[in-house]
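4.2 Preliminary Data

To establish feasibility before requesting continued support, the project team ran the inverse folding procedure on a target of 389 residues. The structure was first converted into the token representation described in Section 3, and no sequence information of any kind was made available to the design step. The complete token record follows.
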């Protein structure tokens, strides 16, 4: 999987519940230039329930269809890998209303469930647009007015999306940049000025705005061919420096260095190491052997010289440790809180107590039982659309 995930293990009696959290990658579709999502990036186990000796159930998000499917196996699985491997074999053939599959250890499909009680999908609170502070130059569009262009990684851009039901704020969409990311499209000649542009945008984020991107990588970089300029996207891990979520091991200087090393050598082995254990000096102190298929508009030595000058300048210059040290630091209010809802809590002695609470997410089955309108993000598998294109 691209990116990283935080893992939390909770034990309740003989049952082990494992939760993982990762930013959602929204995607889109273009029949003229089809990009099939990499199978290694398509599925993510958002959480799982494991019993000693089995069975094990993993709740798996399919970024392609934007749905969650539970995968149950008889074995006790400490890793989600078998569940992901077996679901990938069947996911495109499952009906849209299948919530759970039961598979053998070899991956054979034993049964499926369309029972709503097996639906582990959660729906977040969507605040009314009127409660969201909106900059004057940011467009607002109904979700029904969006047209899918291509299935790429999602990121925050300058168009706010509201749902077609009650006009609630449901997220952001992005301007489409053709040509794929630097990870996907390796046929272009990489230009020295693009490296300078990447350096400039990282300096602007870190030193002027007090923002750390924290996920600088070829998969998050595109080239706008109309302006011949590099663009950094996917701010899912970005934070205000010094605030919750900020991680020095994910610093953007290291991200730029690793990105250029990977672009030039096509060796990304160091990305498989935990951020805390990644040592950028390993690549700083070795020769970079250009991959024979890589095209550069300047010698490798000039790219490295630019990187060296920049790294020395950043390391010897002022360090921003808290966002407020940046001259034009950014700040923004938190998302609006949901209204109070009556929630019934059941206790082991059989009693139940109703309390008013702020509920930030609801299980979809609960909303159905309450007769609430549900916003549906699910869509057909991309492979099927590609076959019909």
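Position-by-position output of the design step:
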């Amino acid at each position: 999987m691209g990116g990283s995930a935080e893992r939390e293990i909770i034990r309740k009696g003989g049952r082990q519940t494992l939760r993982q959290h990762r930013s959602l990658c929204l995607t889109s579709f273009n029949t003229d230039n089809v990009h099939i999502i990499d199978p290694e990036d398509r599925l993510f186990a958002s959480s799982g329930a494991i019993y000693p000796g089995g069975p094990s159930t993993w709740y798996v998000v399919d970024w392609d269809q934007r749905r969650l499917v539970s995968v149950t196996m008889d074995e006790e699985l400490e890793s989600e890998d078998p569940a992901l491997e077996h679901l990938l074999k069947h996911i495109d053939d499952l009906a849209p209303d299948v919530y759970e599959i039961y598979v053998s250890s070899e991956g054979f499909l034993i049964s499926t469930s369309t029972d709503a009680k097996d639906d582990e999908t959660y729906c977040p609170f969507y605040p009314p647009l009127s409660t969201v502070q909106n900059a004057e130059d940011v467009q607002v569009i109904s979700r029904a007015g969006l047209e899918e262009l291509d299935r790429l990684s999602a990121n925050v851009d300058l168009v706010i999306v509201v749902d077609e039901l009650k006009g609630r704020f449901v997220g952001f969409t992005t301007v489409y940049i053709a040509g794929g990311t630097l990870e996907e499209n390796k046929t272009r000649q990489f230009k020295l000025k693009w490296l300078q542009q990447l350096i400039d945008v990282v300096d602007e984020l870190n030193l002027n705005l007090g923002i750390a991107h924290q996920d600088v990588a070829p998969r998050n970089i595109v080239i706008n061919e109309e302006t011949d300029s590099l663009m950094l996207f996917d701010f899912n891990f970005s934070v205000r420096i010094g605030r919750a979520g900020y991680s020095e091991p994910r610093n953007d200087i290291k991200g730029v260095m690793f990105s250029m090393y990977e672009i030039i050598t096509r060796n990304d082995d160091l990305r498989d190491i935990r951020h805390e254990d990644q040592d950028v000096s390993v690549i700083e102190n070795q020769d970079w052997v250009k991959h024979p298929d890589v095209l550069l508009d300047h010698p490798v030595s000039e790219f490295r010289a630019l990187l060296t000058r920049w790294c020395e300048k950043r390391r010897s210059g002022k360090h921003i440790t808290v966002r407020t040290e940046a001259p034009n630091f950014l700040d923004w209010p938190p998302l609006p809180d949901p209204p109070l809802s009556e929630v019934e809590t059941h206790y082991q002695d059989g009693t139940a107590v109703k309390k008013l609470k702020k509920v930030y997410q609801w299980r979809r089955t609960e909303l159905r039982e309450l007769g609430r309108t549900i916003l549906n993000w699910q869509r057909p598998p991309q492979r099927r659309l590609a076959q019909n294109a």
